[in-house]
Design goal:
The chain has 4 helices and no strands. It has about 110 residues and is mainly alpha-helical. The structure holds zinc ion.
């Protein structure tokens, strides 16, 4: 039987593995871009810039989720983990297992998007 701490640890391991891959890609792009970093109109340069921005976006996204996992762990310690931020109802375990950093139930997440 897995616990919220297992979910958080599992998700964190996934994110860290993803981040390591993203960092490697950023290094590769930086090297490939190397000399012609000024040639903005070079189509290959454009592709690399796009690749760079994509990888940077991924990195920011993963880093934000890692922070959210830290916050989730703090809520576990405080005994408030698993309650929806907005409506206060318990978030179903299945949802938490998929995204342990989740702070809102699906209904409230949908509300926010509208
Ligand atoms: Zn809710």
């Amino acid at each position: 039987m897995s616990t919220p701490r297992d979910w958080i640890a599992g998700r964190r391991a996934e994110l860290l593995a993803g981040l390591a891959g993203t960092e490697q890609r950023l290094r590769d792009v930086r090297e490939a871009r190397g000399d012609w970093i000024d040639e903005e109109h070079d189509p290959e340069g454009f592709a690399l810039t796009f690749e760079w921005q994509h990888a940077e976006g991924l990195r920011a996204h993963d880093a934000a989720e890692l922070q959210a996992l830290d916050a989730a762990e703090a809520r576990l310690d405080a005994g408030t983990y698993g309650a929806c931020d907005a409506c206060g109802q318990p978030i179903p375990e299945g949802q938490l297992e998929l995204r342990p950093a989740r702070t809102r139930c699906v209904a409230c997440t949908d509300d926010r998007r509208r």
